[in-house]
Every structure is written in structure tokens, then in C-alpha cells.
Amino acid sequence: MFDLLSPVAPGWGANLLRGLVRSLQIALGAFGMGLMIGTLGAYGKLYGGPIVRDLAAIYTTLVRAIPELVMILLLYYAGTDLINRILEGMGYQRVDISGLVAGIVVLGFVQGAYATEVLRGAIKAIPQGEIEAARAYGMSPVLMMRRITLPAMLPHALPGLANLWLISTKDTALLAVVGFSELTLETRQAAGATKAYMTFYLAAGALYLFVTLFSNVILEWVEKRARRGMPSVREAH
After folding, report:
1. Closest Cα to residue 31, out of 189, 215, 201?
2. Which of 123, 139, 162, 233 is within CB 3.0–4.6 Å of 143 for a Cys-Cys bond?
3. Membrane-spanning residues where (predicted)?
4. Within its chain, how far is the Cα of 50 from the centroid?
């Protein structure tokens, strides 16, 4: 990349592209994990018992109240140390946790709190008559979720989930502080080695912009398919 565009940065373009791929891997993994946590959290808040609702409320409140950078540092360092202490206490050896896995788990845990609220709001937007009709037909909670709740809430959840995906792609940059070689850290190393700060940081910004624009195209297509027969959210506002 940059070896073709500028003699100032020979060979560093591949590093940036490798960092971009790692950033996207983390973003996809964290977004998927956040969706799973968010689905469980939303159902727990809406239909769980008092203890489940309280635990879900504590989780979402704490994660949304603590700055994401602080949460990442806390989970990355304290979390991995806690796991190894538990393993040692059980007689096992300490393990080196993959930076990729740790990044996905840390950001996924953060994403899950926001996804919980997005999905909870989407479920509450479903006309109550549809839920009551499903119960009247004797559907089990799992069957009702698969056939009624999930399809009906998807159009309401998509705008919020789209924002969470874009946030996830940008939050990967925070992992640079713990030494994971995603796009931001690769950019910082390349800029420091070549002193071409403007070149590399503009390039990193362009790559993030490309990811955002491409994501918007995909997300708009998904929204149109999910909202067939319904007014567009953008038109409604």
C-alpha cells in the first residue's frame, strides 16, 4: 500500500492492513457476543424473576456508567489475573490468554450492556396483542421468541444495533492501550518509526471511514429487507 504511494513508508502498508483485519475480527466477535448477552439481558429484565432483573440492572448500569477505557483496562488486566488465580487455586498452570480472544471478550462484555437496552426497547415496541395471541395458542417461551418476538422486534432494533456495530469498530482502537496490534497501534508504530505522522494517521482515518461507509451500505440494505411494508425509520423522523 504505502510502499506504492510514498517512499517515506516502504512496507508499512501491509502492517496497517493487517491491523485493520484484526480490528474487524475483534469488532465482529464483540458485536456477536454483545448480541448474545444483550438478548439474555433483555429477556432477563423483562421476564426474569426479581434476582435476575436486579442482576441485569446492575450489569447495565455499571458498564454504562464506567468509561469504556477504564472498563477495558479493568477487564483485561484484572480479569485475566483473576482467571489465572482461579486456575492456580485449582492446581492448574497459568495460561496466556490470546490478545484476540481477550479483546473480543472485553469489548463484547461492554457491548452486551448497550445491546441489552436496545433489544429491551425493541421487544417493548412489539404490539402486546401479538404476544398475548402467541400465549393463547400455547406457545412455549422459546418457540414464541423464535417465531414472534425476534422477527417482530428486529425492525425496531436495527437502528440501535447499527449504531452499536459502528461503535464496536471504533472501540477496537481502545485496545491499543493494552498492546494489542490492531489498526491504531500499527498506525502509531508505523508513524513513530518513519516520523510520517500525517501520512499514517490520515491513512488510518481513511480506513476507518471506509469501514463505516461500507457498513452503512450493508446496514441500509438489511434495514430495507427487515422493514418491508413498514415506513422507513429515517422517513418517520
Report:
1. 215
2. 139
3. 20-43, 55-77, 97-115, 148-167, 200-222
4. 28
The b-or-e profile of 22-37 (16+ CB within 10 A means b, else e) is: bbbebbebbbebbbeb
Sign for the pseudo-dihedral over CA of 45, 47, 53, 55 = negative
CA distances from 197 to 13, 14, 96, 174, 193 (A): 14, 17, 33, 19, 9
d(CA 4, CA 17): 14
Query: How far from chain centre, in Å, is Cα 23?
Result: 11
Amino acid at 229: G
**Quick one: 2-231 is in which CATH superfamily?**
MetI-like (1.10.3720.10)
Can you tell me the distance from the alpha carbon of 216 to that of 7, in angstroms, rounded to the nearest whole number? 34
Task: Note the pLDDT of residue 149.
Answer: 79
Cell of 225: 429487507
Residue 2, all three cell numbers = 504505502
The per-residue pLDDT for range 17-44, each reduced to its tens digit, is 888 988 999 999 999 999 999 999 998 9
Spell out the residues 6+ positions from residue 65 whose beta carbon is closer than 8 angstroms to its own.
none
For residue range 111-136, list pLDDT tens digits in order. 999 999 999 998 888 887 777 777 78
Dist. CA 139–CA 230, nearest whole Å: 26
Which of these, 70, 37, 67, lies nearest to 55 by C-alpha position? 37
